[in-house]
Write a structure and sequence with these properties.
7 helices; mainly alpha
């Protein structure tokens, strides 16, 4: 059960991480740019999670809002809309190709799930909105 909750939150956060570095998805003009921005924001999610205390991560898994993740979610929504506008039907594959750029603490199972899911090419954006 614990792993399921962690996986659910991880997938949701990664899905929300489909935004660009500076929050301005309108400046992106190719699917490759969208994929680059997505990987950068996935790294932001990883970094944010690794900076949190275990009790804060627990609160996050219970639905408590944290400002950094509210912003990340909005950035993700904006980038998802940009990907749709550009017709990026291959966005998951493009993001998967860039997954080797991600860095996570090997001792942090939560962030390792994010890296693993991204490397496996999971459709994390769709999972958030299901």
């Amino acid at each position: 059960m614990r792993r399921s909750a962690a996986l659910l939150i991880t997938v949701a956060l990664v899905a929300a991480a489909c935004g660009d570095d500076n929050g301005d998805a309108t400046s992106l003009d190719s699917c490759e740019d969208v994929a680059d921005a997505t990987i950068a924001l996935v790294q932001d999610v990883i970094d944010e999670l690794e900076s949190m205390s275990p009790s804060d991560v627990g609160a996050l898994t219970q639905g408590e809002e944290f400002p950094a993740f509210v912003e990340i979610e909005q950035r993700g929504i904006d980038l998802g809309m940009k990907a749709e506008e550009l017709g990026c039907s291959d966005i998951d594959a493009l993001v998967q190709e860039r997954a080797d750029r991600l860095e996570a603490d090997p001792a942090n199972g939560f962030t390792q799930l994010i890296v693993e899911g991204t490397r496996n090419g999971e459709d994390v954006m769709a999972r958030l909105f299901r």
